[in-house]
Amino acid sequence: MFEDALMESGGKLKTRSKYWMIATFVFNGLIVGLMILIPLLYPEALPHNSLTASLTAPPPPPPPPPPPPPPAVKIIKVVSVDNGLHAPTKIPKDIKMIKEDAPPPPAGAGVAGMEGMAGGAPGGVFGGITGGTGPAIHVAPPKPTGPARISGGVIAGNRVAFVEPQYPPIAKIAHMSGTVVLHAIISKSGSVERLSVASSTNPMFNNYAMQAVQQWRYRPYLLNGEPTEVDTTITVNFALNGAD
């Protein structure tokens, strides 16, 4: 009996589990179907952001710009000019000679007073006084644009202040002499503005010569009655004159 009970209970259990599985599968299928149908029937139930992201597509790219218009074509008209010189198509039988009048005398060949009167001069003024030479024309000389180049001997006569250059001690002990030629620019007031060594027999004399000449003064050099700058040379001699 116990075995029969087990066999019967086993058949009942198998039958119940089969129906339970079918019912579970149908229930799960209904749930899945509802989950699929609800978004289709009620789309507003979905989140707005996800729906917008799924339905929004990027805008198409803008169309390319139109090509630039072609440049305007300029039309140049070629006009032929007739200069009046043409090759003859045939040789004429009679050739006429054209005689031209002599040119009039130049205007500068007139005379003072009336033509043919004594005392006239070429280039005179028409209607002037017989024997007159005409008014004198004075042309102002051009003003200098820079320092006037004057020789050292000429400018030395305009010197009004002189400072004796100091003799170098070493050269004095060694009984040495020398000559320094300086290039100088003298202003309109007579002061020495710029100095430079043009030539020298011994470099030890250069500074002593420049220190002395820098203190020299000159009378203003007049050119056409006006003071002007002078570009000149100044020679400084160093000699012991027999002194120890």
Q: Label the structural class.
A: alpha+beta
Oligomer: single chain
**Coarse morphology:** flat
Distance between the termini: 171 Å
The count of strands amounts to: 8
Helix content class: 25-40%
Question: Can you tell me the residue ranges where pLDDT is under 50 for at least 5 consecutive residues?
Answer: 1-9, 109-118
* Main sheet: strand order: 1-8-3-4
Largest beta-sheet details: 4 strands, mixed
Strand fraction band?
15-25%
Number of helices: 5
What series of H and E elements makes up the topology? Answer: HHEHEHEEHEEEE
What is the mean pLDDT?
A: 75
Rg, Å, rounded: 62 Å
Summarize the structure in words.
27% of the residues lie in helices and 16% in strands. The chain is α+β, with helices and mostly antiparallel strands. It has a four-stranded mixed sheet with strand order 1-8-3-4. Strands 2-5 form a two-stranded antiparallel ribbon. Strand 3 and strand 4 (192-200) form a beta hairpin. The relative contact order is 0.09.
